[in-house]
Write a structure and sequence with these properties.
532 residues, Aminopeptidase, Alpha-Beta Plaits, 2 domains, 19% strand, LytR/CpsA/Psr_CW_biosynth, transmembrane, LytR/CpsA/Psr_C, LytR_CpsA_psr, Transcriptional attenuator, LytR family
């Protein structure tokens, strides 16, 4: 990133409004003032605004979605219709979906990609609520929690992918920066004379464009939830069950103080739980060694607990509680102009806790940008696009019957020419002896056209598939291909450096040290194992 920024850290020529700037702490706005101000020293080093305030938004959105879902599960009753009308009448709308810069790739037409964002504004909180939530004073809007939800056309599952706020990404028109700066840039690009709603829509649109470019997916809908809504909803639902591996004490920052083991949390404690990224265990070791990444796990686990609660009989059969949830969710939700909450609920009505998965975008590791700020390096573009393409792929219809295995013949019917492409002296002769011992007929042996083959390859003429399959069965991991150089009736075996012998599988490819860290296994909403 270039250094020609103004005093608020904005791009040259257009400052980011101070209350939206996610990169610099502002003590006068309640930052760095004890527990409510988060970690002032840490933020000065990282150059970011209060990171944990946005955390609750995603959980609230999930609650809102799940609350509407319960309407559909009641059936097409008058009560369900009434609750739907309540939701539609009270929900806020914003022009969040951009007309350009939003990919056309999104899977089947009926599938849905929904961006969940948390609104950290404290404007509607009373002084008493601010104190109870350990939330400090109003610091504007921060987008420190961003989750992409994919629901396939058949509604059989839901995938939640979290984006860390410090992800170093390209923001259209602004170059490389932290992901949580995208909303602020978009907000600041709108004319100063515009309404607050138009500015917020500008922020949402640039954030969607940034994530669409990052994922290669079209983002169909947008939803954000505010801090007060999170507080109210967790109270109405009666608490959420979570399980901690260790007791934690983060009384200095988020206010989170919890014992180890299973427990039910709600209201102010729920907000502290999903905001925590500091604190220590009783033995003095760091409770959250990965900072924001561990906080994301907490968010995901909490959302999973919310969804389990929403799908339970305690909520589905309690009409009074359903009305409270619908009202609280819709009043705290801001969604795009075209999102139909009842349609969304109908699409998700077959989803169960076991097929709701939570993941985090593939990350390479921690780093520093040219300004010395702490950032997260993501996997390369091809890896990310492949990750999200797999995520959004429609479930395959079950095959009526398994495909028949390839036909084979007796080894004595297979003639093999062996070529050494491994660069290991004498390997062709060794393989030839093993082939003969296994019953194959060996024709000629010699060196391949190159000694740099990394993969053992079986080449055969069209029509000799059964011969090639017979040999391939003796070398698991080898690659078979039709070749115009192969003579009909004779199979060529080109030995690569992965060759371990006839009857032995080849060696797996060596780790090339690529940029993508291993993708963590998804966690489902049904998982109640402990976390840090």
């Amino acid at each position: 990133m270039s250094r020609d920024r103004n005093e608020h850290g904005g791009a040259a020529g257009r400052p980011i409004p101070a209350r939206l700037d996610p990169r610099a702490g502002r003590p006068s706005r309640g930052r760095g003032q004890g527990p409510a101000g988060d970690d002032a020293g840490s933020r000065a080093d990282r150059g970011t605004a209060a990171p944990h305030r946005r955390t609750g938004r995603a959980a609230v959105v999930a609650r809102g979605v799940a609350a509407v879902l319960s309407v559909v599960l009641l059936g097409a009753s008058g009560w369900g219709w009434y609750l739907g009308r309540v939701a539609e009448a009270t929900v806020n709308r914003t022009d969040a979906i951009p007309t350009a810069g939003n990919s056309d790739a999104g899977g089947a037409a009926e599938a849905m990609n929904l961006l969940l964002v948390g609104n950290d504004s404290r404007a509607d909180l009373t002084d008493a609520q601010l104190a109870e939530l350990n939330a400090g004073t109003d610091s504007g809007i921060n987008t420190d929690t961003m989750i992409l939800v994919h629901v396939p056309a058949d509604g059989s599952r839901a995938s939640f992918v979290s984006f860390p706020r410090d992800s170093y990404v390209e923001i259209p028109g602004h170059g490389m920066d932290k992901l949580n700066a995208a909303y602020a840039y978009g907000y600041g690009e709108v004319d100063d004379a515009a309404t607050e709603a138009d500015k917020q829509a500008g922020g949402a649109q640039l954030l969607i464009q940034t994530l669409s470019q990052l994922t290669g997916l079209r983002i169909d809908h947008y939803a954000e939830v505010d801090l007060l809504g999170f507080f109210n909803l967790t109270s109405v639902v009666g608490g959420v069950d979570v399980n901690l591996c260790y007791a934690v004490d983060d009384s200095e920052y988020s206010g989170a103080v919890f014992p180890a083991g299973p427990q039910t949390i709600s209201g102010a404690d729920a907000l502290k739980f999903v905001r925590q990224r500091h604190g220590v265990r009783p033995d003095g070791t760091a409770a959250l060694p990965r900072g924001d990444l561990d906080r994301i796990v907490r968010q995901q686990v909490f959302i999973g607990g919310v969804l389990r609660k929403m799908l339970s009989d305690d909520v589905l059969l309690d009409l009074g509680k359903q009305r409270q949830l619908i009202q609280a969710a819709s009043e705290s939700l801001t969604i795009d102009q075209d999102l139909d909450l009842l349609d969304l609920a109908q699409q998700m009505q077959s989803v169960t806790a076991g097929n709701i998965e939570f993941q985090t975008i593939p990350i390479v590791g921690d780093d520093r940008d040219e300004e010395g700020r702490s950032i997260l390096r993501l996997a390369d573009e091809d890896t990310l696009h492949e990750f999200f393409a797999d995520l959004s792929a429609e479930p395959e219809a079950p095959a009526s019957e398994a495909p028949a295995p390839p036909a084979t013949v007796a080894p004595s019917e297979v003639s093999v020419d062996v070529f050494n492409g491994s660069g290991i002296s004498g390997l062709a002769a060794e393989a030839a002896g093993e082939l003969e011992a296994a019953g194959f007929t060996v024709g000629s042996t010699g060196n391949a056209d190159s000694s740099d083959y990394s993969t053992t390859t079986i080449r055969y003429a069209a029509g000799d598939e059964a011969l090639a399959a017979t040999l391939a069965a003796q070398i698991p991991g080898s690659v078979s291909e039709v070749s115009g150089d192969a003579t009909s009736g004779t199979v060529q075996l080109v030995l690569g450096e992965d060759f371990n012998g006839i009857g032995q599988p080849t060696s797996p490819p060596a780790d090339t040290g690529g940029s993508a860290a291993p993708v963590e296994e998804p966690r489902t909403a049904a998982d109640t194992s402990c976390i840090n």
